[in-house]
């Protein structure tokens, strides 16, 4: 009997893992789309004759769309279902892929911006609803690692698109060159987005609805069938009853303003603060200057692929570490340990820029191999720290820390804060780094310290808890 039960548990976990991988595909598109734009943005600027500000708007339009998608998706998923929202995401992604590629002929620069906003709404919705959906599907003992697949899929999306970008550029020489059917290379890069978009549409059609949503709508038999496929719980009736007791018509239809006035407002504030700290720990800032750091130790543009491989390797090691240990040592401990490593790494980069010789008003590390190696080493440590902790674990905590009654609306607030702070950081970083690289990284290091202190003081551990116990965190 025990052996049969063990087999049932493993089978249920495999089914839950498959569902989680599919629900995380929005993150894969997010990473893929970001790297495609990274390779195409210079050519986009040339094609539409853009200035620096207009190019920046084109680059950040996806983040703006993601903010809108994040804000509305959680509440919509409370009304029509998590799976239904994920099913609706695919056409948004496909719209950007197809019409963004043909934007020079359909409406020019403003139409391209619109396409990026529409695509952003899609992946903003997917990356908001996905973690909550996985949390509601997954068995508690492996819930953390399943939600953490989101970070791994972002990395794989970035890496695959990076390979495609490099392949295209090596074959044609310039992303503005016409390579076939009258399309420039950057337009073909955009068309490559069709592949993950179609894959997302096909695969999300195969997943079930969230059992918590089904219980909220009184569809108990359907909820029991879903739980039976992903859980080896011997008494599903008791499980359904526990879920039902945490849900009622009054709370599941709460507006955002009502949530902010409720007894859970402090818990929501913690989620929003964690979202802000994830961005303020410097992820976009460090990578903005990474090319200069690698050039200082000999990784020039001709070795871009080796640089990409090195960064990706550290990312994968970090996220695999996080996936492996998040359900063993806990979300809180990983955030604290990862935050400490991030802080030390940022402080090291800041120190390098502080002591580097100044050339034309800016620190220059290109003439010092030692400073270059120290900076690159700090960058790699930063990658390990972020991808093993704040990268994946924010999504885990966001997906599971909120009670059933407010999960959709609270996820919208936390994910919206993540996109908003991301936009502000990306917008202001070029100005900050031009003002003072050393001061900028010291500020990031300070935010690293603050993130650790905040986690120690305010975040409660959720590892191994049923979602029906999250009300106790308020």
TrEMBL record:
Keywords: Membrane, Transmembrane, Transmembrane helix, Transport. PROSITE patterns: MFS (PS50850), SUGAR_TRANSPORT_1 (PS00216), SUGAR_TRANSPORT_2 (PS00217). It is a multi-pass membrane protein. It is found in: Cell membrane. Its main location: membrane. Residues 19-463 form the Major facilitator superfamily (MFS) profile domain. The chain crosses the membrane at residues 20-41, 53-73, 85-103, 109-135, 147-168, 188-207, 267-289, 309-327, 334-358, 370-398, 410-435, 441-459. Belongs to the major facilitator superfamily. Sugar transporter (TC 2.A.1.1) family. This is Sugar porter family MFS transporter.
């Amino acid at each position: 009997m025990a052996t049969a039960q063990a087999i049932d548990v493993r089978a249920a976990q495999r089914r839950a893992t498959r569902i989680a991988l599919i629900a995380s595909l929005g993150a894969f598109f997010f990473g893929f789309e970001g790297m495609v734009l990274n390779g195409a943005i210079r050519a986009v600027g040339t094609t539409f004759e853009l200035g620096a500000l207009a190019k920046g708007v084109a680059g950040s339009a996806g983040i703006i769309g993601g903010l809108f998608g994040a804000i509305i998706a959680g509440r919509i998923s409370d009304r029509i279902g998590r799976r239904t929202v994920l099913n609706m995401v695919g056409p948004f992604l496909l719209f950007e892929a197809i019409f963004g590629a043909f934007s020079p002929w359909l409406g020019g620069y403003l139409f391209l911006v619109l396409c990026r906003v529409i695509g952003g709404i899609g992946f903003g919705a997917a990356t908001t609803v996905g973690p909550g959906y996985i949390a509601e599907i997954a068995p508690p003992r492996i819930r953390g690692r399943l939600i953490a697949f989101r970070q791994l899929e972002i990395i794989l999306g970035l890496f695959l698109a990076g390979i495609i970008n490099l392949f295209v550029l090596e074959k044609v020489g310039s992303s503005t060159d016409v390579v076939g059917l009258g399309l420039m290379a950057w337009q073909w890069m955009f068309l490559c987005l069709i592949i993950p978009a179609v894959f997302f549409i096909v695969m999300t059609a195969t997943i079930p609805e969230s059992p918590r949503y089904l219980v909220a709508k009184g569809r108990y038999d359907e909820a029991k069938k879903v739980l039976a496929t992903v859980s080896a719980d011997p008494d599903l009736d008791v499980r359904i009853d526990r879920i039902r007791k945490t849900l009622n018509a009054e709370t599941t239809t709460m507006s955002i303003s009502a949530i902010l006035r409720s007894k859970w407002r402090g818990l929501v504030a913690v989620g929003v603060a964690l979202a802000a700290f994830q961005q303020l720990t410097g992820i976009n800032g460090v990578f903005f200057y990474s090319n200069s750091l690698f050039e200082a130790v000999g990784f020039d543009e001709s070795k871009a692929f080796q640089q990409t491989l090195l960064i990706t390797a550290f990312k994968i090691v970090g996220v695999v570490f996080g996936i492996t240990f998040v359900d063993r040592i806990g979300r809180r401990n990983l955030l604290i340990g990862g935050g400490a490593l991030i802080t030390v790494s940022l402080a090291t980069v800041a120190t390098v820029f502080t002591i580097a010789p100044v050339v034309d008003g800016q620190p220059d590390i290109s003439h010092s191999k030692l400073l270059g190696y120290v900076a690159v080493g700090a960058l790699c440590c930063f990658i390990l720290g972020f991808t093993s902790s704040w990268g994946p674990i924010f999504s885990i905590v966001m997906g599971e820390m909120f009670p059933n009654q407010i999960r959709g609306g609270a996820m919208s607030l936390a994910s919206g804060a993540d996109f908003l702070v991301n936009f502000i950081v990306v917008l202001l970083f070029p100005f900050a780094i031009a003002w003072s690289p050393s001061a900028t990284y010291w500020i990031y290091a300070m935010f690293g310290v603050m993130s650790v202190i905040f986690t120690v003081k305010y975040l409660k551990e959720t590892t191994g808890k049923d979602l029906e116990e999250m009300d106790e965190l308020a």
